[in-house]
Input
Amino acid sequence: MRCVAGLLFILLHYTGAAQSYQKIHARAIMIDTHNDFLSKAVENHYAFDSNLQGITNSDLARMKTGGVDVQVFSIFCDEHYGKGSAFAYANQELDSLYAVAGRNPYRMQIVYNYRQLMSAVKHHKLAALSGVEGGHMIEDDLSYLDSFYKRGVRYMTLTWNNSTSWATSASDESKHAFVVTPYGLNEFGKQVVKKMNEMGMMVDVSHVGEKTFWDVIQTTTKPIIASHSSVYAICPVFRNLKDDQIKAIAKNGGVIQVNFYSGFVDSNYMPRLNQFLKLHKMQQDSLAALKKPHDEILDYLFSHYKQEMEALRPPLSLLIDHIDYIVKLVGVDYVGIGADFDGSESAPQGMDGVQDYPKITQALVQRGYSKQDIFKILGGNFLRVFKANEVIH
Ligand SMILES: [Zn+2]
Output
């Protein structure tokens, strides 16, 4: 009898926890600050309001399933776009966001400020913001920054993996491939940061080099964000954040939005991936000979070797460890979610797309986080920074 009572208790306990995590997730303002769907959309002509299950990590219906209230869409092009092309390409991606919002006025809304964001959330619409991922898209012209702001861009990642003429990237700094002297932020770079502070566009330090990072900390007058960055102490890769950087962001009142990419979450992912690629080298080489880009080759191999690909993914618990680590280091007010969905080839087990965010909430409940703390992690912390950067015109 005692045994049955015990079993009943465990069952009730777990059912209770299951209900409460779903309730918490539904009540929270869930915000993700980095999603690369728009790049895929423009390249492949995908429509966000169509069913893209099995093709992409995100679509409008699955945002609803995942309880996403606010999505910051990344505006991205790589270093092959430069002066005369990068700004135009970025605007093409913005056009595609405007087009989908225009077609779905009852399901999503492009928002420009905190008030509109809260109103969209209240009316159960996906609040859409955008962030430019790579300073090369302003083509060294501050009027382009203005133009982005007017179109609703609310953060700019100062560099992508490529340095600009005014800021060095984590990729270049870690390879000591300094393309500008002095590295870090030069005078124009500091002007960019000040201009962003003045206009109310958040400064994003994901992808920037350490020297640039510390120059930003010295220059900014507003809280900054890392829109999609994880923890170096757990996974020491070139663009994860070291403890002193995490502490500096907390001191600045900013927020670190944890990236889900397996290669940034698990330090053993890359060795496992390389082993997988070695096993399929012949196929890889023949695709490379056809001049297929690296991410397309990975997509192809992953779709053909599903079981092997599954085995490469780290457990979800390791991703939660990154959140935990930041909380233990600086407190619960400086961490959030920037999954990088549709921008990377692999995420931890169970994180197949935007529909899976409730699993994060479930895992946080299981680790003993309070409802209030979960609200902060899922969106409250980012909202605080968003508001602190806002300039009321
Ligand atoms: Zn990125």
